[in-house]
Amino acid sequence: MTKLSVNINKIATLRNARGGNVPDLLKFATEAQGLGADGITIHPRPDERHIKRQDVLDLKKVVYTDFNIEGYPSDAFLELVLQVKPEQVTLVPDAPEAITSNAGWDVAKNSKLLKKTIDLLKKEGIASSLFLDTNLEQVRMAAEIGANRIELYTGPYANAQNLGMSLMETLEALRLAAEEAQKLGLAVNAGHDLNLNNIKALKHFIPFLREVSVGQGFIADCLYLGLPETVKKYKTCLK
Ligand code: PXP
Predict the structure, then answer these.
(1) How far is the CA of 218 from the centre of ligand 1 (A)?
(2) Strand partners, 212
């Protein structure tokens, strides 16, 4: 079964809008795990606009499922993840001011930085995952520099209609990239703009998908349906 990793950045965004501790990030993470979420994802950005440094340290104490920390491998980011030692670090190429991740790595261009980071994480027993577009060359490079996993960027698939792209072609591109990764020994995660309308087809095309990371759509569904029903529905899509 594919793992459901819940990205809780948006809970922190809501909390920070008012100051104080409502909603309570730790309570949300604890309840999501209790209801069956297989992991918790966060993306501590340099401006701390949602997840703050202290949140990362506090979450370490309550996350007992797969803890996934995303970020650009700056010195400050690496110092933090080495302190916390999550199960997985997902490396993204975002500039500090990016609203959200919207493209995968150019692995060849960044191979020195990525390889150094992957080696460092490996030494600490942390799995590294590279955020990638559905580009076979990038997948091969990721394997070559020693990444453990990749996270395929699903934005183009989820937004195919708005982008004037063929849904089937985006799914096919995801499948080909995932199969290439699997062949090379990389585990395959996926994320971005996934929701109850598009996860099932993704899972159908990539049955061996290791994990999906869901944030914006999942949290919106929590507002409509409540957390227990939302976890249940997403888990059903991933069976
Ligand atoms: N994967 C990565 C690398 C991301 O940066 C994000 C957003 O933080 C997600 C997955 C989750 O995307 P969404 O919020 O659209 O579900």
Answers:
(1) 11
(2) 4, 190
Do 179 and 143 touch, CB atoms closer than 8 A? no
- Which 8-state DSSP code applies to residue 109? T
Q: If pLDDT is split at 50, 70 and 90, which confidence band does 136 have?
A: very high
Structural contact between residues 146 and 185, judged by C-beta atoms closer than 8 angstroms = no
Which of residues 94 and 185 earns the better pLDDT score? 185
Nearest C-alpha neighbor of 49 from the set 99, 105, 84:
99
Pocket probe for ligand 1: among 6, 77, 197, 213, the residue whose CB has the most ligand atoms within 8 Å is: 213
Query: Using N-to-C axis directions, what is the helix angle for 75-84 and 111-123, rounded to 10°?
Result: 20
Task: Give the residue numbers spanning the domain of 113.
Answer: 3-237
CATH assignment of the domain containing 211: 3.20.20.70
Write down the pTM of the prediction: 0.96
Distance from Cα 106 to the centre of ligand 1, integer Å: 18
Confidence at 224, pLDDT banded by 50, 70, 90: very high
Ligand 1 mutation pick, 4, 101, 129, 230, max ligand atoms within 8 A of CB: 101
Total structural domains within the chain: 1
Supply angle C-alpha 215, 213, 53, rounded to 5.
65
Widest distance between CA atoms in the chain:
48
> What's the mean pLDDT in 153-169?
94
Structure tokens at 222: 């929590």
Active site residues: 43, 70, 192
User: How do residues 99-114 score in pLDDT, each as one tens digit?
Assistant: 777 899 999 999 999 9
Looking at residue 134, the DSSP 8-state letter turns out to be S
**φ and ψ at residue 74, rounded to 5 degrees:** -80, 170
